[in-house]
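thread from #wetlab-drylab

HS: before we spend reagent money on co-crystallization trials with zinc ion, can we at least see a predicted complex? here's what I'd submit
DV: go for it
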Amino acid sequence: MAVVFMETNDYMKELKIKFFATSLYKIFAIVSLIILSLQVLRAQDYPTVKAERGDGIYSILKRHNLSPGEYLNPFIELNKDKLGKNNSVFVGQSYRLPVAGTTGGSNEPAVSGDAAAKVSSAGGKMMTNSLYGDKYSRFSVVDNSLEGAVFYLVSGHGGPDPGAIGHLGKNLLCEDEYAYDVTLRLSRSLEEHGAKVYMIIQDKNDGIRDASILSPDKDEVCYPSSSIPRNQTMRLRQRTDAVNKLYVANKGRFQRLVIIHVDSRSKGENIDVFFYHDKQSNTGKKLAWNLQKTFKEKYDYYQPNRGYQGTVSMRNLYVLKYSYPAAVFIELGNINHTRDQQRFMIENNRQALANWLCDGLIKDFKNNK
Ligand SMILES: [Zn+2]
């Protein structure tokens, strides 16, 4: 009896050990399989390319239709171990390519800006931004539809360069002042929806102005507080560098660059709002289309008989070409055009343009984040 019992006991022990070993083996096999398939997946996720003579990250990305603005950092991340000094690439070396549509994440780097937020006693978030001037510096956040989005706003010209100059009686209407006022209003609208905004061109004492004649000055600076050079190439490089530095600091976030001018080349009867993107940037193209569609809807609704003709097209422009974030260049009209002068002198019109641009940017954020 006892022997049988012992035998059974031993048998059971052995069975248990066998069972345990089999389970261990099974678990090991399953884990290996998972690791293996993950590696296969990873390899499939990232196509590789070989660097050619004369290549840099920029040219590799452009050759594969990836906007450097969006994919420069992902590329560096994916290939950290294979890059040389200053992120140079080696001829013949294979590099992983980021997969289109994979940027945008939730890293929250420390950012600096002028806007300061505090929660009011009522619970609504009150913001102050001294750039908007006494009348407009305080505002409340109406919703969070742009939470997580970062915008770089560049108003055209500034500093020693007034841009196009319109004449009205004794007054000079300078493009940079009108572009700046709309841009500043846009900045405030975006912040009202929870966006992080960087005004790249700033005028510390202008604020948002309700006057019809915006008197010209030359004290605009480039972010954070650099005086603007007279030379055009240096001027464009300065603002592009400012944007690109911030882009790197905000790595992983949804980021867009908006450039605003008022010296449209259009010769038509109606001077419409036109949108331009870089030919290499599909995201910039989508951004431009989202804005154009918004303007079309607004005009159809508010001025159904006007017939809006504003278009989207490619344009070879320094800031579009060399900026890291997806970018749109906007011609709001022409300050030399009599009808446009009337349009821009009315403060409500400048505000409406800012509101419509803000709505378009919300549409773009919803469609692409
Ligand atoms: Zn201009």
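DV: The chain has ten helices and 16 strands.
HS: ok that's useful, forwarding to the group
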